[in-house]
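Tutorial, part two.
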Amino acid sequence: EGLMNNVIESIEQNSVWGGDGLTPDIKERLHKFKAKFRDCMAGRMIYSIVLDDPAGNSYVQNMFAPEEDPELLIEIYERSFDQNEELGLNDMKVEGYEES
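Running the prediction step on this input gives:
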């Protein structure tokens, strides 16, 4: 819920997504998107959120704890080369680190 609130607030407050500079067709598409997004937030539409966090810094609270959340799928995977590149991990020198 907090994530979705942050998304809609960012869209509404960001000057790129509003104001007089938008063409009528973009303004209409944005209006439809926000309406659909709010329907999702209100539970009037079925949707899934895929949270792909290669750095592992995200947290999703399990409201069923200590039981498993039947609607939550956690998939642990090995990062790709490109993901490591984006995180600056491919150029890290770790050999002999503890010796220094």
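The chain has a mean pLDDT of 87. In part three we will examine how such features are distributed along the chain.
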